Amino acid sequence: MSLVFPVAVCRPDARPAPEAQLAWKLAELAAADDRPIDPAAAELAALRLIDNAAVAIAALNRPPVVAARGQAICHPRAGGARVIGLAPEQRADCGWAAMANATAVRELDFHDSYFALDSSHPADCIMPLLAVAQQTRLDGAALVRGILTSYEVQTALVRALPLQHHRIDHVAHLGPAIAAGLGSMLALPVPVIYEAVNLAAHLSLSTRQVRKGRISSWKAAAPGHIGKTAIESVDRAMRGETAPSPIYEGDYGILAVLLKGMGGEVTLPAPQDPCRAILDTLPKAHSAGYHGQAIIDLAFRLRDRLPDLSQVDRITLHTKRMTHMVMGSGSGDPDKWDPAASRETLDHSAPFQFARALVDGHWHHDHSYDPARIAAPEFVALWRKVETVEDPEWNQRFDTAAPLDKAHGARAVVRLLNGDVREDELAVADSHPRGAAPWDQQDYIGKFNTLTAPFVSQAQSSAFLEQAKTLATLSAKQLFAFGIVADLVPLQDSPAGLFERGMR
């Protein structure tokens, strides 16, 4: 059974009591410490932590990750949280460790996704929760409860309150989700979690420009920054401080100002029901924005039917509005066809992804973005023949379906110079639960082994996986020590910033 909570803008003279506000309902969900744990959800939480670690390790020497790690190193704390790749004794304050680790996770655009009225990457919650769990000496069961709570809150907000339509970035739903997950993990009382959720929601708002035009390295850092902000929001609430409220319903709040007065219905599990929303979230087999996952697989399927790509006249991808506007021609961004564009821009370019997959027949988190290969004239010529168009049928298949039933892909129409046409379509990525090869535990472990092999010895890798697979059973001592060292490759040092000034 689910609880449906309507949320709407209130007049100043009809402000709801705290107990009637959305932030309070989210706090009540988080504080239900007797809520049962679904075994399948707990298992997937462990696999998503493995997935996070895999993509984080593969990104350890990329500039945004190096910079975030450099900031964390400037905030050492004995008994704090581990920083991915560093020795276990080199610990940092949990807020800065959370930012460094979450930045590493986000950098390659290679972890999970969720889609309803809006989109999100719910696994962005895991590293902030882990950092706090280590610093506060919690066990694996508490961490799993926090992860499942955070997933539940974020997906509930994504189902009810669309941000992208109003050009607000989806990390606005991440902050309150992490605050709720922390409250659940720490077994905080409802009033404290309520204040933390209000403040985290207030401080997590940013514009969609972070994913528009020339996409900068901040895209990788944004979730970690939100995680750090949520940690600080919880700390402040635990000290008895208050936050702006009602943050959602207020006449100057999120609904009124940012969503132009739009309300919604937030659906949450009943107190006796487990948090299972993580089971509706989707893995990534390719290091690219999720809208490109099925498009890449579709290109692989068409490749054998196009032996001479020089004979392609033009390629049209008929797809849903979200793909067209965010990753395609509807964005109006010439950057999506620019061989000098940033990697962050290219992993949000459906035309680039289709063309690259069509040429190569495989996808690699580094090689597919090799600047020299991207700039090759024959590739650029093919790439610039690819366009997207918004297709009402694909909108319907995406907009009106339940999260796991949505059609994410496209229909590709390839017109050749001789007038022949080749076309095919793919609704979901192969790795999707409804796809040709739905992911299971072995796929996550295979991804981990492949991505970490250049950085981590086999002994380190095996030890990490053995503990991660049994995350819910780890003691507080085991979780405190849990982590992984990059023992095969020297980690790059960050250029000095403000925090190094005056350090001795």
From TrEMBL:
Domain MmgE/PrpD C-terminal span(s) in chain numbering: 286-467
Highest taxon listed in the record's lineage: Bacteria
InterPro entries: MmgE/PrpD_sf, MmgE/PrpD_sf_1, MmgE/PrpD_sf_2, MmgE_PrpD, MmgE_PrpD_C, MmgE_PrpD_N
Pfam families, per the entry: MmgE_PrpD_C, MmgE_PrpD_N
Residue ranges constituting the MmgE/PrpD N-terminal domain according to the UniProt record: 21-261
Family: Belongs to the PrpD family.
Name of the protein: MmgE/PrpD family protein
Organism (species): Fuscovulum ytuae
